[in-house]
Design a protein that fits this description.
- It is elongated, with a radius of gyration of 28 Å.
- The protein is an alpha/beta fold.
- The chain folds into 4 domains: about 110 residues, Periplasmic binding protein-like II (D-Maltodextrin-Binding Protein, domain 2, 3-Layer(aba) Sandwich), CATH 3.40.190; about 140 residues, Periplasmic binding protein-like II (D-Maltodextrin-Binding Protein, domain 2, 3-Layer(aba) Sandwich), CATH 3.40.190; about 140 residues, Periplasmic binding protein-like II (D-Maltodextrin-Binding Protein, domain 2, 3-Layer(aba) Sandwich); about 160 residues, Periplasmic binding protein-like II (D-Maltodextrin-Binding Protein, domain 2, 3-Layer(aba) Sandwich).
- The strands form 8 sheets. Strands 17, 18, 19, 20, 21, 22 and 23 form a 7-stranded mixed beta sheet that branches. The protein has a 4-stranded mixed beta sheet with strand order 4-11-1-12, sandwiched between helices. A 4-stranded antiparallel beta sheet has the order 15-24-16-25, sandwiched between helices.
- The chain contains 21 helices and 26 strands.
- Strand 8 and strand 9 form a beta hairpin.
- This is Serotransferrin.
- Belongs to the transferrin family.
- Its main location: secreted.
Amino acid sequence: MNILLISLLGCLVVALPSAGAQKVKWCVKSQNELMKCQYLATKAPELECHLKPSMTDCMSSIKVGDADAATADGEHSDANFNINDLKGKTSCHSSYQSPEGWNIPIGRMVAKGVITWDGPEDMPIEKAVSQFFSSSCIPGISKAQYPNLCQACQGDCSCSQNEKYYGDEGALLCLINGDAQVAFVCHNAIPENVRQNYQLLCMDGSRKSVEEYKDCYLAKEPARAVISRKDTDSDHIYKVLKQIPATDLFSSDTFGGKDLIFSDSAFELMELPKSTDSFLYLKEDYYKAMQGIKGIKALPKNKVEWCAIGHQEKTKCDNLPDSPMDCRMASSVDECIKKIMRREADAVAVDGGQVYIAGKCGLVPVMVEQSDEQKCTEGGEAASYYVVAVVRKGSGVTWNKLRGRKSCHTGLNRNAGWKVPDSAICGKTHDCTLYNFFSKGCAPGADPNTNMCELCKGSGKAVGDESKCKASSDEIYYGYDGAFRCLAETTGEVAFIKHTIVGDYTDGKGPGWAKDLKSDDFELICPESPDISVKHTEFATCSLAKVPAHAVITREDARTDVVNTLKAAQAKSNVLFKSENERNLLFTDTTKCLQENTKPLNEFLTSKYIDMIERSYTIAQGEPDLVKACTLDNCVVAT
């Protein structure tokens, strides 16, 4: 099997917790792998080798803690037919249960309905395939049980040199020799000098040349990855493996085999982003293929499923009149983005900084919060707001005296609370981050062990508060209202928020905690007036940036359902935009309506705003972990 040139390190198996250990107990599946593993252990003394008969046994061993890790695979002729006409044709596959030869093609065809299969309760998937193709060569499958799936083979139908048509090269040879009408292989198995003789069958029913494989493939096959329990110290595993020279890790000739433990074609290990789960690693097409081959079918939805962040949002969502949506709960915006990608939810409202992250994960903004009542009926300029830095009047805090102060932020990587002030403060300064610029702060979603969680209050419990510094309404200082409260209660000395918040939460208009606050007690500071503070109403001339309003994000295929559901919901009442204690639950409480957005992501955010975000990533903390996970290129193409 052709494998991507970089072997990747990550945690893809969630299992029961167990105590950590200094030894890395590696599970291997053959005597040849055991020999290589024992040799590698001479290079890294912490490595300990454990032999199991199969990958399934290795995974079971990892689950119960008897092992810590193992490597695992990610799980054409000129005739006149397409992908929908394969029934009754002859086929050749690299091998049984391989990604490119079995999992991807069979899984995708089951998911698309090309192969009719009602699931394992109906019959084994192998039987469904044997009834679909007239004859095949699928090395490794049971010749006794499914003889026609070995009928096209030229050998013993095994995954060995005893079968002429084993592997990508063998499957292609099977096609070339005329023993099959279609072959399932990785695109780079087809030699360049014969590519003009073959065509690819695309999932949309079309055919393309081999050179057009990027626009015509069944799925991208993930590279080999190291798997372990979620609680395992992956950093330690990575450090142990990095002690071993690449020439030893990625070579198997000495041990009488090929691709033992790691791919021989790999040249280095790369650690995966922490946010990477099985869906993000495998990518959607491959994930669908695996669901198809397991007989897992998507259940029909009666309603749009909204992603509520934390218990308070879930409660509001559940209690909306006439139940326009079903509600699913997540712990953070990042988790909502993952749920929407996995189709476990359909939509959530987020700020511009999070719209950018969602866009990198393939989601789109479809509706925008509008706080101007007149524009709800007349239309006009796209909704936006000013980001301001608010201080208490008479505090002596100015823009030039900001370093070392205590700060209040709406949340990590959020627009007003993080991205904009990060750009304004550190945008032109090397090695500057908000972490080292301020003495301490509250930025919900930050690492709990950093100074940016030190001022957070959680749910208000005295001890054992799991909500402290969580990026949800369970944290009192989360969001616009939370950052302003952090300042109002003198916990922090500056708050980075939306320009309307001071007016919305003072002079008797706010919730209980804000009932005695006066708007005149708060002022703005900005780079344009570095040595003074100005009235909170002067945001048009003293702000950090003007940015896009919060938007509803979803998958492109769910756009119509989400837009229609929200339009119908807001037409009935405005309870969508009302929250107990004005906590901006689900939507910002000052929202007057949601307006449909038809602009592409780049136009919606504007190039100026995107440049600001990307510049802050370059100079400050780097790309968010979820962006890294969503844009990870770890695949080769199976056709």
